[in-house]
Amino acid sequence: MTEMRRSEENPILIPMSENTWEADGAFNGCPIYDGSKTHFVYRAVSQPQEIAGFELPLSQSVMQ
Predict the structure, then answer these.
(1) What CA dihedral angle connects 11, 15, 16 and 19, to 10 degrees?
(2) Residue range 5-30: mean pLDDT, rounded
């Protein structure tokens, strides 16, 4: 079993400006165990996108 510990270094997860879907924020990471694999799920906030005439950022969950 993999042991997860709080990192002494912060932040461990940062937004990546080259990915529009996570350019404005990346946070709330959590490891998820799936048999022999460990996935890291986190919340990302996109650059504002035009939706119905409004500029809105989108928030979504991402699994790595």
Answers:
(1) 160
(2) 86
